[in-house]
Amino acid sequence: MTSKTVQFPTASNIKKSNSMLGEFKSEMRKLTWPARDEVIRGTKAVLASLFVFGLGIYVVDLAIRGALNLIQTAVNVLFR
Question: Which of 10, 32, 41, 79 has the most CB atoms around it within 10 Å of its CB?
């Protein structure tokens, strides 16, 4: 059985974490959040691009599937 030593937080570690928390809060106050209409516009752009790329992938898939079916039909006709 192995024994593990538990280290409790020291005063300096607590001060460091409090300092980091204060810096974090300070930085969060400096942030500027986008307006609602800007978020909606960005969301629409992302959804539109997803649709366009998805449609493109679907069309390419159909073309490849059609080409492979054509090749399979040609092989079946020629070699049977």
Answer: 41
Record the tokens describing residue 26, joined without a space: 């300070």
Domain boundaries, the chain: 11-79
Q: What is the pLDDT of residues 6-57, one digit of tens each?
A: 777 777 777 778 888 888 899 899 999 999 999 999 999 999 999 999 999 9
* H helices, E strands: number in the chain: 2, 0
User: Tokens 């204060």 appear where?
Assistant: 22
Given a cut of 90, is residue 59 above it in pLDDT? yes
State how far the Cα of 38 lies from the Cα of 40, in Å rounded to an integer: 5
pLDDT at residue 63 in the model: 99
- Exposure string over 52-77, b if 16+ CB within 10 A, otherwise e: eeeeeeeeeeeeeeeeeeeeeeeeee
User: Which tokens is 53 given?
Assistant: 């790329």
